[in-house]
Amino acid sequence: MDNTKELEQLTVYELFIGALSKNILDNVAKYNKIKGSVFDIFALTTELRMDMIFIQIDLGISFIACCKTNNTYIQCYHIKNLYAGMQEAYKLLLGYGKNQRFSIWTKIGNAINSKPISDWEEQPFLYSLFQSVNVKLKEIAGNNSDKTHRDLTFHYSADMKQVYSYTIAANNLDEASEKIFAYLDLLKDMTKLCDIIEDCLKRKGRATEINIISDSIDNNLHLTLIQNLSKDEVLHDMLNNILNDLRTIDEYAFYLDNFKKLKELVYKQTELPEINNILILLNLCLTIQFMRADMAAITQSYLLSKTSGEAMLNMRRYIITITASLSHLYGYSEKEHRNSIWSSVLCMIPENDEKHKKEAAQIENMLQKIVLGKDMEIRTCYVHMYNNKTHKTNIPIIIDLLKKQNPIIELQKVTSIGNL
Questions:
Q1: Is pTM, for the whole model, over 0.85?
Q2: Contact, 367 vs 330, CB < 8 A?
Q3: Whole-angstrom Cα distance, residue 94 to residue 99?
């Protein structure tokens, strides 16, 4: 991407995100006041506006983070999150399979074809615009529909070589830029539809006035923390060392791939448990290295945040990364724990090896404390804009979680993970 063009886009987008961050709370407040009491098209356009603003912010944060760095790994990390965010956005707007009938976009379409709107003289134009946007929406979804890549971003994998392969492939910032601006163009058309519907309601005397008092999403603790951490030379040296020397990740991925091939070759003749053990340890090392690199990428982006809203959205990725890695390393449920890398490692320790058994017990105690918190519950809300069980938007819940975020506590979690 041309540097001048990139800087222009970055400047525009930072201003854009700043404005949207102020609007999201107003829209959440309107939605919370209107839901359950107003059962008409205005309630639907209010919800759709709220969802669209959050989508713009979410995608914008990833795009800004991509443009702010020249580090290849950080760009790959945020491009992955940008594409995964696009899938979550589509799930919120229209959804997949049977869930489509519950989606906000389907409800808007049904309302346009139902009374009283079906009697409006503007109805044919509204329906035509809806259909046009619907085609765009499905076309964009088709270009961002790889669920495997989305899962590798948010969940990691029992086979971290898959995560490695996808990460090094997600390196085209020009392509990412084209996709996000196509998504913005789509949301602009959706906003136009909402504007026309609400204008018609006003002219027909059916508009609903909503008086709201919304608080601020600003949390000065974030900006104070960023200011202090930005002066920490030891922290910057550590982050640079992790992000500028990723040969360890490349090497572990290389050895993991080759030992898999060796296993296929050897196991045709005999079984060697030692090969399995080596594969488990290599997968363990690769998981830890990815976790460290992702944490470093998040921290770098967090430190470059210009507003507390941007900082909050960057910081939420800590929990997503922690839970993704620990799900495979240790497990949050009994089933995950039984199938975890840690359980396999414990089986390798000889019965009479008291030294390593004692060290393992100490690590186990630390892991148990970490997974007993509510991180997985919070992570589920941060990842999913739409709740498949309730068939409702998760945006008000996400905003509430962001407002309650304590950056000191979140960074302490990162530190405790690092001590493992």
A1: yes
A2: yes
A3: 8
Name the 3-class secondary structure at 219: coil
Q: How many residues does the chain have?
A: 420
Could you tell me the two tokens for 256? 């993991």
Do the Cβ atoms of 61 and 314 come closer than 8 Å? yes
Q: What is the DSSP letter of 78?
A: H
392-393 vs 386-387, strand pairing mode: antiparallel
Alpha carbon 18 to its chain centroid, in Å, reads: 19
For the stretch 293-332, what's the b/e string if a residue is b when 16 or more beta carbons lie within 10 angstroms of its beta carbon? bbbbbbbbbbbbbebbbbbbbbbbbbbbbbbbbbbbbbbb
Contact (Cβ atoms closer than 8 angstroms) between residue 152 and residue 166: yes
CA 182 to chain centre: 19
Q: Treating both helix axes as pointing N-terminal to C-terminal, what angle do 273-303 and 72-93 enclose, rounded to 10 degrees?
A: 90
Element housing 31 (H / E)? helix 3-34
Q: What is the pLDDT along the chain (420 residues), one digit of tens a residue?
A: 455 555 555 665 666 666 666 677 788 888 887 776 555 788 899 999 999 999 988 998 898 888 888 899 999 999 999 999 999 999 999 998 888 999 999 999 999 998 888 888 889 999 999 999 999 998 888 777 788 999 999 999 999 999 999 999 999 989 998 898 899 899 999 999 999 998 988 887 766 666 665 555 667 889 999 999 999 998 889 898 888 888 889 999 999 999 998 888 887 666 778 888 999 999 999 999 999 999 999 999 999 988 888 899 999 999 999 999 999 999 999 999 999 999 999 999 998 999 999 999 999 998 888 888 888 999 999 999 999 999 999 999 999 999 888 999 888 888 877 766
386 forms beta bridges with 393
Q: Positive or negative CA dihedral for 9, 11, 13, 16? A: negative
Residue 343: partners with Cβ closer than 8 Å, 6 or more residues away = 331, 337
The one-letter amino acid at 335: K
Domain ranges of the chain: 3-203, 220-418
Report the phi/psi class of residue 331: left, alpha or beta, with left for phi > 0 and alpha for psi in -120 to 50.
left
**Cα dihedral: 154, 156, 161, 163 (round 10):** 10
CA distances in angstroms from 413 to 90, 205, 312, listed in the order given: 31, 53, 15
Q: How many whole angstroms separate alpha carbon 49 and alpha carbon 210?
A: 15
